[in-house]
């Protein structure tokens, strides 16, 4: 019988067959983004810190503590074996669901800005929705990979997935956290598509989901007001449209090359939430269009590499996990920047690695750690021999023969075809 110590050591064991170091195309762009984010936090919170606490470096020091915690968690998660990552599915589901329910416990859940989205556990203030998104990725990767052969069936693929996610959406909308609910819907559909669900089924479910989200958006007067301000912010220039207008001013003042680090004025109490949701506007104010595009390029490298790693991954669970985390990064970046430049109404979602906030930076670094753990797994072309199990058949191939590199994907398609017949 395996001892408890040996069991937990297996969580961090080196991957099967061979092992390699983490992918620099993942951690180098992320490191640069964290450094830029650190500068932006100091840049955007100095005057805010002096006004609120008398210490201009208060929020900067807090963010450095958050980064330290995130680095520890990211380093730890980067050492997990595939078996260890699988074993995280249930604990993460229980923990994230428990914290999401804890926001309604008196003296634990906190209300800010009319929304009950935070929990205080001793000295720690956390936003459970950040953990919920990562926990959902783990759960869906496990759930969908077990149904791989039947994903093209409505009753076995799309329908049960949506029924499982509905209570989660209800809890997020109850807070209310409409932005995170939209994120969850988009994430679920992305992973269903990657798992092999039929486009017809996704389109039908997507139509129902879109209708439900529109009804929810119209159910709250403040959301209607926010949408009206999005359509024509100048009509409510001193009200709901103020933040978006100030973001436009920051984008325009930066020009092509920017005004220089710290030289932009919009962060000086003109642009609300300049250190969190609208930090990208401050980046372009200081570093201009070139600086903004450079930040986008770093995110693009990170996301492209994560997707490429997921595409090359022979294990269905690991592949879907890579797709889910890469998509989570991509959706957060796209929605945040779309809000800043006025393409979608304000959602209140932070920009990974750059925005101030403990939950945001800690979970972003944890997500990066999981991608690094997956990058340690050898790709199909990186070693000479590997046994791939497909049903009851074992396949052995030489990676030097290019015709054999698609062997796994071919057998995967055959299994899926058998499942639809």
Keyphrases for this structure?
5 strands; two-stranded antiparallel sheet; 15 helices; three-stranded antiparallel β-sheet; 2 domains; mainly alpha; 421 residues
Tell me about this structure.
This protein is mainly α and 421 residues long. The chain folds into two domains: 9-379, no CATH class; 385-421, no CATH class. The protein has 15 helices and five strands. It has helices spanning 4-9, 24-52, 58-77, 82-87, 89-102, 128-146, 158-174, 178-195, 199-219, 221-231, 242-254, 279-312, 316-340, 358-375, 407-420; strands at 109-112, 115-121, 124-126, 387-390, 393-396. A three-stranded antiparallel sheet has the order 1-2-3, covered by helices on one side. A two-stranded antiparallel sheet has the order 4-5. Helix 2 (24-52) runs antiparallel to helix 12 (279-312), helix 5 (89-102) packs antiparallel against helix 6 and helix 6 (128-146) packs parallel to helix 14. The longest helix is centred in the last third of the chain and has 34 residues, at 279-312. The chain is globular and about 55 Å long. It starts with a helix and ends with a helix. Mean pLDDT is 85; it is low at 14-18 and 380-408.
């Amino acid at each position: 019988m395996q001892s408890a110590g040996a069991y937990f050591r297996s969580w961090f064991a080196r991957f099967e067959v061979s092992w390699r170091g983490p992918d620099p195309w993942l951690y180098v762009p992320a490191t640069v983004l964290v450094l830029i984010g650190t500068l932006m936090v100091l840049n955007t919170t100095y005057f805010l810190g002096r006004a609120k606490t008398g210490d201009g470096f208060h929020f900067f020091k807090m963010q450095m503590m958050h980064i330290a915690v995130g680095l520890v968690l990211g380093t730890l998660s980067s050492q997990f074996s595939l078996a260890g990552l699988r074993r995280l599915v249930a604990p993460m589901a229980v923990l994230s669901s428990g914290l999401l329910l804890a926001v309604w416990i008196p003296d634990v859940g906190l209300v800010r800005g009319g929304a009950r989205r935070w929990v205080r556990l001793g000295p720690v203030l956390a936003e459970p929705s950040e953990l919920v998104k990562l926990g959902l990725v783990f759960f869906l990767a496990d759930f969908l990979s077990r149904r791989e052969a039947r994903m093209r069936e409505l009753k076995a693929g799309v329908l049960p997935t949506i029924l499982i996610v509905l209570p989660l959406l209800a809890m997020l909308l109850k807070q209310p956290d409409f932005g995170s609910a939209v994120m969850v819907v988009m994430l679920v559909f992305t992973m269903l598509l990657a798992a092999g669900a039929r486009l017809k089924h996704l389109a039908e479910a997507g139509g129902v989901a879109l209708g439900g989200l529109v009804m929810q958006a119209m159910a709250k007067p403040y959301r209607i007001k926010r949408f009206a301000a999005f359509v024509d912010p100048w009509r409510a220039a001193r009200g709901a449209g103020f933040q978006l207008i100030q973001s436009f001013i920051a984008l325009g003042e930066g020009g092509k090359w920017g005004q220089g680090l710290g030289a932009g004025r919009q962060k000086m109490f003109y642009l609300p939430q300049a250190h969190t949701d609208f930090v990208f506007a401050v980046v372009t104010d200081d570093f201009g269009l070139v600086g903004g595009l450079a930040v986008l390029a770093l995110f693009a490298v990170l996301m492209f590499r994560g997707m490429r790693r997921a595409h090359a991954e022979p294990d269905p669970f690991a592949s879907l996990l890579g797709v889910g985390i890469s998509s989570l990064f991509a959706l957060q970046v796209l929605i945040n920047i779309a809000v800043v430049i006025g393409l979608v109404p304000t959602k209140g979602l932070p920009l990974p690695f750059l925005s101030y906030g403990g939950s945001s930076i800690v979970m972003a670094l944890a997500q990066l750690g999981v991608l690094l753990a997956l990058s340690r797994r050898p790709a199909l072309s990186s070693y000479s021999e590997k046994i791939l199990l497909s049903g009851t058949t074992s396949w052995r191939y030489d990676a030097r023969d290019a015709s054999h590199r698609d062997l796994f994907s071919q057998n995967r398609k055959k299994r899926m075809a058998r499942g639809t017949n």
